[in-house]
Amino acid sequence: MSAIPRIAIFASGGGSNARQLIRHFAGTVSAEVVLLVCNKPGAGALEVAAANGIPSLLINRADLEADGLLASELGKARVDVILLAGYLWKIPGWLIARYPDRILNIHPALLPSFGGKGMYGHHVHEAVHAARESYSGITIHLVNEHYDEGRIIFQASIALDHTDTPARIEEKVRALEQLHYPRVAEQFIFTTA
């Protein structure tokens, strides 16, 4: 690991969690965001990276599955840790092997409930709503070969009201994400360095 750990953020969407992570680490000397990897052309996360002077890499499925372009760019950037921030593609085995116990994901529910393939974003919040859950929350976990099954590092919950819509549940959960993910990621990086 570098003297100041170097972070790559993987994101697929608007970039709200990426923005929080970039802001957080810009204000510390504990780690540095050096690359944003995105799989969706036009995603807001790319704009977030550009606005903060963070280099970005747009990848396709072939780039992810093969130990080629992505591996090369992560190597050139001397990335030590990967933080998934709304990244929707499954992380391949070669990348997990290259970064063992150094890839964190944030999931918008209290795992093991409402996790697995296809359970992301609004799908999670709709499922929580349909199940009439009293609580929802976030889970920050290590990434392994299975969707949402890596070792849990941190969870936080929020009470739900029977009048909460899926959109309101998403708002509540996003507030938890932005409050906790940067701090938990920094603590994780500090303890693994």
Question: How does this structure look, described?
Answer:
By secondary structure, this protein is an alpha/beta fold. It has a single domain (6-192), classed as Rossmann fold (3-Layer(aba) Sandwich), CATH 3.40.50.170. 39% of the residues lie in helices and 21% in strands. Strands 3-2-1-4-5-6-7 form a 7-stranded mixed beta sheet, sandwiched between helices. Helix 1 packs parallel to helix 2 and helix 1 runs parallel beside helix 7 (166-192). The protein is globular and about 50 Å long.
In short:
This protein has 193 residues and is α/β, with parallel strands linked by helices. Helices cover 39% and strands 21% of the residues. The chain contains 7 helices and 7 strands.
CATH superfamily: Formyl transferase, N-terminal domain
Query: Percent helix among the residues?
Result: 25-40%
Biggest sheet strand line-up:
3-2-1-4-5-6-7
Could you tell me the CATH topology label. Rossmann fold
Instruction: Indicate the structural class.
Output: alpha/beta
Detail the poorly predicted runs.
none
**Secondary-structure element order, N to C:** EHEHEHHEHEHEEH
Tell me, rounded to a whole number, the average pLDDT: 94
- Amino- and carboxy-terminal Cα gap: 6 Å
Gross morphology is globular
Query: How many strands, what sense, and barrel or not for the largest sheet?
Result: 7 strands, mixed
- Discrete helix count: 7
As for the number of domains, it is 1
Number of strands: 7
